[in-house]
Amino acid sequence: MKQLDDLHEKIAKGQIDLDLRNAIADRIVEFIEQNKASLGMWEKFHLGQSISALGTINSSDDQPLDTWFKLSLLSLEKAMVPEGERGEENEDIDEKVNSVTYEMLVGALGELKTN
Question: Which DSSP string corresponds to 63-84?
Answer without folding.
Answer: S-HHHHHHHHHHHHHHHTS-GG
